[in-house]
Design brief:
The chain is mostly helical. Helix content is about 70%, strand content about 0%. The protein is built from seven helices and no strands. Helix 5 runs antiparallel to helix 6 and helix 6 runs antiparallel to helix 7. The two termini are about 35 Å apart.
């Protein structure tokens, strides 16, 4: 542990000290001694200053991300999940085209392509309005699916339960993307 902490660069060491509550006391003691040896701080008392005090946010359904690297990783994961969601209308659209139901098939293919296009735009521009638009598209598509579900499918309670959980996960992801982007725009 000592070697790993001592091999950190100055910025990483200062970051560790600012988040020292998340580390074992032994690791913090090693980091403090290393910071003193490097003359980043004069004594442990300096850790009480604003420089080493991490902003505390209340617990939230949508966790705060303090560092840009955290934001990029979580944002990237959420956007990749949106691409996976787009596969659903694309696959069903292709199946409808095979079944010679061109109007429904083209509609679903168009919806999937629109979803992908908006996801790409959001990824590039980091626009907080796009998750809201995706939410409207998602809820509209879900309602249309539920209202026009084929009679030959014998829907059971578990089918609705699985669909509901999947829909809630997509909605949570979209809302979290909106919150992340809104927080980020507030910082800039």
């Amino acid at each position: 542990m000592r070697n790993r902490i001592c091999s950190l660069d100055d910025n990483a060491l200062e970051e560790l000290l600012s988040q020292r509550d998340a580390y074992e006391p032994e690791a913090v003691d090693i980091a403090v001694q290393e910071a003193i040896d490097r003359q980043l701080i004069q004594s442990k008392d300096e850790l009480r200053g604003a420089r080493f005090t991490e902003k505390r946010h209340p617990k939230s359904l949508f966790p705060y991300l303090h560092r840009e690297k955290q934001f990029q990783k979580v944002f990237g994961s959420l956007v990749r999940s949106l691409y996976l969601v787009a596969l659903i209308p694309l696959i069903f659209g292709a199946l409808k085209m095979v079944e010679m139901q061109q109007q429904q098939g083209l509609g679903m293919l168009g919806l999937g392509l629109l979803w992908i296009g908006l996801s790409i735009r959001m990824q590039k521009r980091k626009d907080a309005r796009i998750p809201l638009l995706l939410m409207v598209i998602f809820v509209t598509g879900l309602m249309q699916f539920l209202l026009s579900r084929p009679e030959h499918l014998n829907w059971q309670l578990t089918d609705f339960l699985v669909l509901g959980i999947a829909a809630l996960l997509v909605i949570y992801g979209l809302v979290y993307l909106r919150v992340l982007l809104a927080r980020r725009q507030g910082k800039q």
